[in-house]
Amino acid sequence: MSNVLFDTPGPRTIARHRLYTVVASLALLAVVAGLLWILFEAGELEYDLWEFAVTPSFLGVLGGGTLTTLSQAAAAIALATVFGVVFGVGKLSDRAWVRWPCWLVVEFFRAVPLLLLIVFVYFAYGIGEGGIGAYWSLVIGLLLYNGAVVAEILRAGVLAVPRGQSEAAYALGMRKTQVMSIIQLPQAVKIMLPALISQFVVALKDTSLGFYVVAPGLTYVGRQVWTEFGNQFQVATVLAAIYIVLNLILSGIATLLQRRLVGETSPLDLTRVGNMQGGENTGGGVGTT
Amino acid sequence: MDDVTGNFDLVLSAFWLTIQLAVISGLASLVLGTLLAAMRVGPVAVLRRTAGVYVNVVRNTPLLIIFIFVFIAIPNIGYLTQTPFLLKGVIALTFYTSAFVCEALRSGINAVPLGQAEAARAIGLTFGQNMTNVVLPQAFRAVVPPMASVLIALTKNTSVAAAFGLLEATARMRGFTNNNADDRLLIFAVFALGYIIVVEAISLSAIGLERRWKAAR
Question: Taking residues B65-77, what's their average pLDDT?
Answer without folding.
Answer: 92
